[in-house]
Amino acid sequence: MTSNANNLRIIFMGTPQLAVPVLKALVEAGHNLVGVYSQPDRQSGRGKRVQQTPVKEAALELELPVFQPASLRRDESARKELADLQPDLIVVAAYGLFLPEETFSLPRLKTLNVHPSLLPRYRGPSPVSTAILNGDDETGVTIIQLDEGMDSGPIVALLTTEIGPNEACDVLTDRLFRMGSQLLVDTILGWARADISPEPQDESKVTITSRLSREDGLIDWTDSAEFIARKIRAYHTWPGTHTTWQGKTVKIIAGKSTSSSSAEPPGTVVALDDGIGVTTGDGLLILDTLQMEGRRSATASDFVQGYKDFVGSRLGL
Question: What is the overall mean pLDDT for the chain?
Answer without folding.
Answer: 95
